[in-house]
Write a structure and sequence with these properties.
This protein is mostly beta strands. It contains 3 helices and 26 strands. The chain folds into 3 domains: about 1-105, Immunoglobulin-like (Sandwich); about 110-180, Sandwich (Immunoglobulin-like), CATH 2.60.40.10; about 185-405, paralog of FGE (formylglycine-generating enzyme). Helix content is about 5%, strand content about 40%. The strands form 8 sheets. Strands 12-11-14-15-17 form a 5-stranded antiparallel β-sheet, with no helix packed on it. Strands 5-4-7-8 form a 4-stranded antiparallel β-sheet, with no helix packed on it. The radius of gyration is 39 Å and the shape is elongated. The structure holds calcium ion. Calcium ion binds next to loops.
Length: about 400
């Protein structure tokens, strides 16, 4: 008998029967023989799966893949997946071997070179700040990414938002900072960076001193004056605030007082700005060196409006007074004159749990933060780290506000 050469099954069974030719009755007997083919099996698994597997340049399917009935020999295996490094491997299949091979595919990488017009823009790649242009970001998985850029100058904010596709190797992108926002007049840029908030001395609620990183923002150089606030009141047809008619506090260039927290927020919205966070307020007041008073570490009469007539003001002073008491950024009356609303809720121990970047205050408290002291306070209460708080709906003649930009 012959066995066909193209057997493809793993085994075949041949039955042989013997016949006695002598004519005598004899017990027939049979013999079972099993012929095993010499084919092997190769199982290919990959991470990630659904890769395409070529065997000797012929596409055989996607992983996980079982290649059966391979004759013994050497095979060229190529594994491909878009955006991944290709794998090329030679695999030898032995007689009747059952072989499982696993492969990990590596993502293709690219480098991104960024420039911008104007240069010096902060790049935010997938939500993370990466540095300033010109900038190189190394070894990025190929793919499409969100990219944003911003540049703050004293008068204008430049912004960009878009996507970048990273291909293998070198990628170049010129970011056109096409969206511009004009900074409202009378505001000062507080540059992005770290400062020390709070104090290890002072009152318990000022503890501990801790490092805070803030993004760029602008803050009003002066407290909001009656002339600005009355404009808002007229435009919105609101009742005129009580103290606007009180001679002790009235006058176009004096700070608006008796403003509730809600009133302050509504004014801010109308002005296209917002109230500062407590952290923003304090940095603008004390500078990167962390002065006790906006102008330095020593109190001195004549640099702020406090509870003393010898500074020239029994009640509120004009918002542009005391230029010698300006903070390192040139912000006026951060000590004395009026307490200023901050957007944060107040919690005496918040500094122990505050996040290190752009903190926004605790949640679910009742009072809001006030900072800076007022015309009726002592030198202790006008320190840059001094914290106070108030219920949001009360109107007091020693509470006013100043605002920051941009609103979000
Ligand atoms: Ca005074």
């Amino acid at each position: 008998m012959s066995i066909p050469e193209d057997i493809t099954d793993e085994e075949i069974t041949i039955t042989l029967e013997a016949v006695d030719k002598s004519g005598l009755e004899a017990e027939p007997f049979s013999l079972d023989a099993t012929l095993l083919s010499s084919q092997g099996q190769l199982i290919i698994e990959t991470d990630p799966d659904q890769t395409q597997v070529y065997v000797n340049d012929t596409l055989r399917g996607e992983t996980p893949l079982s290649l059966d009935k391979l004759l013994p020999g050497t095979y060229r295996i190529r594994i491909t997946l878009e955006d991944y490094e290709e794998i090329n491997e030679t695999i030898t299949i032995e007689n009747r071997a059952e072989l499982t091979r696993q492969f990990v595919l590596l993502k293709l990488k690219g480098d991104l070179y960024l420039e911008s017009d104007p240069p010096g823009a902060k790049i935010i790649f997938q939500g993370q700040a990466k540095g300033r242009t010109p900038l190189k970001i190394d070894y990025i998985d190929v793919g499409t990414y969100e990219i944003a850029a911003e540049k703050y100058t004293p008068d204008v904010i430049y912004r960009f938002k878009g996507q970048v596709e990273i291909k293998k190797g070198e990628n170049r992108m010129k970011v056109d900072l096409f969206t511009t926002e004009k900074v409202p007049p009378g505001m000062v840029l507080i540059p992005e960076g770290e400062y020390e908030m709070g104090s290890d001395g002072g009152a318990a609620n000022e503890n501990p001193a801790h490092k805070i990183h803030l993004n760029n923002y602008y803050i009003d150089k002066t407290e909001v004056s009656w002339s600005e606030y009355i404009k808002f009141v007229r435009e919105q047809k609101r009742p005129k605030p009580f103290y606007a008619n009180d001679q002790r506090f009235s006058g176009k260039n004096r700070p608006a007082v008796g403003i509730t927290f809600k009133g302050a927020q509504e004014f801010a919205k109308w002005a296209g700005k917002r109230l500062p966070t407590e952290a923003e307020w304090e940095k603008a007041a004390k500078g990167e060196k962390g002065f006790v008073y906006p102008w330095g570490d020593e109190f001195s009469l004549g640099k702020a409006n406090v509870a003393s007539d010898s500074d020239g003001h029994k009640f509120t002073a004009p918002v542009n007074s005391f230029p010698r008491g300006a903070s390192p950024y040139g912000v006026l009356n951060m000590a004395g004159n009026v307490w200023e609303w901050c957007t944060d809720y107040y919690n005496a121990t918040y500094y122990y749990v505050s996040p290190p970047r752009n903190p926004k205050g605790p949640k679910n408290e009742k009072r809001h933060v006030l900072r800076g002291g007022a015309w009726n306070e002592s030198r202790y209460d006008i320190r840059t780290t001094r914290r106070w708080s108030y219920w949001p709906d009360l109107q007091r003649n020693y509470i006013g506000l100043r605002l920051v930009f941009p609103p979000d």
